[in-house]
User: Which sequence fits this backbone?
């Protein structure tokens, strides 16, 4: 319906093609971009950035949360700085990261990792803190070792909250990617969009944006599936 | 004589090396609050002991000492063999199915297949064969407590500790659970220590009643009547019940002829 109206507006000239390309034009351009491999390569590069940044950030966030959640000492060492850094919008670090890491891949990955680490840290820690200590005690009364308690009681107990953090952090990961790629990139979806801007190729920009939102939807769907599988016991 | 009453001083002084638990001069304090004072208590293999007392008398603390949930000096609390605990709340892991919850107590058994087989067998004993794949949140209170019992039982303990396990259940379910515990206890011949403040529960289940008062063992009764003969109206049970209630500081209500047609109820007879 919306696409139909949009097409009519574009065809009649009510919608200037320099403002927004017509759906038909975008469709043709999509086919072109897929066929010459531009879209595939750009998407792959962007997905890779998010994946690597996410894995790094998630590992740090979850590891810190487990340490802080289980050890008084680690809590004192980790939590105050994390709480301080948390209030800092990570995009504010872009100038600093550019000075530290230059303009290559590293600052992008670092920025994504930063964005991912905090929601996962906070939610996982909250999940661990929220576990009923009586459950841990029951596990101790069964002579379960520290590792066994971690695996069977603490991690699954913190999982629902961790998954909330996972969804938040994936959203932030894509957002961070877009910002990072828009500022400087020589490959990826952001580069494709920036390049198109220089040549006023509005249809390419729209395709790039559509790809971003598709990827965001896709990862959100994956996490939702994961939640459904992991939390069946709640129903 | 069916009933032997011990004062704390004469308690179990006979030399008997066969104990699953031996507590000697055990004291515990939280801050300035003395919770347990100089406790001496032995539990023989296969013995069923009920630990009674008012709230805050230290009975749960004593159970925690026996379960090694708190650090206690090995010289004060010696345990032979394995202990296991069933708590007031079932404390099942909601994210593990019933069978896996029970098998969890066997994690130190190497083969997973063995663990599951043994867990299934134990769940059969508590009458929950149809709930193996259920999630704990789907169970009723009584069923959950049965799973908790199975979990305490499956590791084949020499001493099973029950911390007010039935106090949250309705009266009828509680009677069922008493039957079940007796059955399990007979079949597996482990010793049981049950912490309760239900005098009737203690009288129905235990060989020995121990009363804890302000961290000290105040009284001990041994009940030698077979469990099938322990009807509340049974004179010996009735008189012990009255003694226990008195020791717990519960005063029987004096009869009121205007409101109460019974001239002598069981409690008053016993207390006299």
Assistant:
């Amino acid at each position: 319906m919306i696409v139909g109206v949009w097409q009519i507006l574009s065809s009649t000239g009510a919608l200037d093609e320099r403002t927004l390309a017509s759906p038909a034009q975008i469709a043709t351009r999509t086919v072109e971009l897929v066929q010459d491999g531009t879209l595939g390569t750009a998407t792959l590069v962007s997905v890779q950035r998010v994946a690597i940044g996410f894995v790094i950030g998630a590992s740090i966030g979850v590891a810190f949360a487990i340490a802080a959640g289980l050890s008084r000492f680690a809590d004192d060492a980790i939590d105050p700085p994390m709480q301080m850094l948390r209030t800092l919008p990570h995009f504010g670090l872009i100038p600093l990261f550019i000075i530290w890491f230059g303009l290559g891949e590293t600052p992008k990955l670092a920025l994504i990792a930063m964005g991912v680490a905090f929601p996962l840290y906070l939610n996982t820690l909250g999940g661990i803190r929220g576990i009923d200590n009586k459950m841990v005690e029951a596990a101790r009364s069964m002579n379960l070792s520290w590792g066994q308690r971690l695996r069977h009681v603490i991690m699954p107990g913190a999982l629902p909250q961790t998954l909330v953090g996972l969804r938040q952090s994936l959203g932030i990961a894509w957002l961070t990617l877009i910002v990072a790629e828009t500022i400087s990139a020589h490959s990826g979806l952001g580069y494709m969009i920036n390049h198109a801007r220089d040549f006023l190729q509005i249809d390419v920009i729209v395709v790039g944006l559509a790809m971003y939102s598709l990827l965001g939807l896709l990862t959100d769907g994956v996490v939702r599936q994961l939640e459904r599988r992991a939390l069946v016991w709640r129903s | 004589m069916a009933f032997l009453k011990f004062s704390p001083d004469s308690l179990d002084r006979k030399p008997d090396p066969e104990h699953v638990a031996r507590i000697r001069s055990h004291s515990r304090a939280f801050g300035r609050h003395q919770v347990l004072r100089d406790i001496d208590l032995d539990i023989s293999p296969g013995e069923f002991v009920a630990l009674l007392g008012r709230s805050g008398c230290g009975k749960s603390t004593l159970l925690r000492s026996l379960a090694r949930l708190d650090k206690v000096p090995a010289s004060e609390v010696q345990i032979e063999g394995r202990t296991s605990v069933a708590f007031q709340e079932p404390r099942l892991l909601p994210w593990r199915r019933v069978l896996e919850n029970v098998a969890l107590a066997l994690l130190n058994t190497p083969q997973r297949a063995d663990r599951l087989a043994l867990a299934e067998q134990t769940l059969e004993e508590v009458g929950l064969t149809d709930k193996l794949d259920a999630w704990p949140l789907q169970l009723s209170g009584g069923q959950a407590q049965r799973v908790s019992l199975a979990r305490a039982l499956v590791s084949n303990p020499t001493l099973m500790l029950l911390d007010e396990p039935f106090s949250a259940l309705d009266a009828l379910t509680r009677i069922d659970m008493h039957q079940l515990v007796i059955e399990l206890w007979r079949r597996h011949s482990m010793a049981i220590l049950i912490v309760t403040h239900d005098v009737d529960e203690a009288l129905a289940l235990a060989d020995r009643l121990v009363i804890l008062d302000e961290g000290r063992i105040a009284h001990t009764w041994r009940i030698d009547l077979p469990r099938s003969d322990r009807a509340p109206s049974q004179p010996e049970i009735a008189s012990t019940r009255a003694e226990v209630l008195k020791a717990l500081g519960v005063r029987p209500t004096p009869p009121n002829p205007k409101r109460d047609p019974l001239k002598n109820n069981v409690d008053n007879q016993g207390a006299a």
User: Anything to note?
Assistant: Chain A has a mean pLDDT of 90. Chain A touches chain B through 21 residues (CB under 8 Å). Residues 146-183 of chain A form the longest helix (38 residues).
